[in-house]
């Protein structure tokens, strides 16, 4: 048999070509839609991550400013709490100092502790016997 070349054959051939072209376009369109959906999801995830990072950067800049401000306040407050430690050498060497000046230490009595906002004082009552000018020189040495 001969293939039908008439109007019916031409319509059949046209329909088959149209169907083939439509199938190819449909497959390409499905692939494009699938790729578009995947890219939009990735873009949304990247935008979310970008917003998170931008928020972190803004918070870090704010925290840096606060840190500098707090460090300056701490530096000011540390000045109030600088420790002045006295080694007590004049009290340890009190006997030698009194002999060198020519006076005699007769008593050393601690008084009541005085507490201020930044200083703790322990006053001592010192009893000394000797010449007036020597006692003044001894007090000046202390």
Explain the layout of strands and helices.
Elements: H1 7-80, H2 89-92, H3 94-101, E1 104-110, E2 114-115, E3 120-121, E4 124-129, H4 132-141
Antiparallel strand pairs: 1-4, 2-3
Describe the structure.
There is one protein chain. This protein is mainly alpha-helical and 142 residues long. The chain has helices at residues 7-80, 89-92, 94-101, 132-141; strands at residues 104-110, 114-115, 120-121, 124-129. The strands form 2 sheets. The protein has a two-stranded antiparallel ribbon. A two-stranded antiparallel ribbon has the order 2-3. The longest helix has 74 residues, at 7-80. The termini are far apart. The mean pLDDT is 84.
Total discrete domains: 2
Quote the average pLDDT: 84
Shape: rod-shaped
* Number of strand elements: 4
Q: What is the N-to-C order of secondary-structure elements (H for helix, E for strand)?
A: HHHEEEEH
Question: Uncertain regions: pLDDT < 50 for 5+ in a row?
Answer: none
Order of strands, widest sheet: 1-4
Radius of gyration: 49 Å
Number of helices: 4
Measured as a percent range, the helix fraction is 55-70%
Biggest sheet architecture: 2 strands, antiparallel
Distance between the termini: 137 Å
């Amino acid at each position: 048999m001969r293939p039908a070349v008439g109007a019916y054959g031409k319509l059949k051939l046209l329909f088959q070509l149209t169907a083939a072209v439509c199938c190819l376009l449909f497959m390409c369109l499905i692939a494009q839609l699938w790729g578009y959906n995947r890219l939009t999801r990735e873009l949304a995830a990247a935008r979310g991550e970008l917003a998170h990072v931008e928020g972190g950067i803004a918070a870090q800049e704010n925290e840096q400013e606060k840190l500098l401000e707090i460090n300056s306040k701490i530096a000011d407050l540390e000045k109030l709490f600088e420790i002045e430690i006295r080694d007590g050498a004049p009290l340890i060497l009190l006997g030698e100092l009194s002999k060198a000046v020519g006076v005699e230490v007769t008593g050393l009595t601690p008084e009541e502790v005085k507490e201020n906002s930044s200083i703790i004082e322990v006053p001592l009552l010192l009893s000394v016997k000797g010449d007036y000018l020597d006692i003044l020189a001894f007090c000046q040495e202390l």
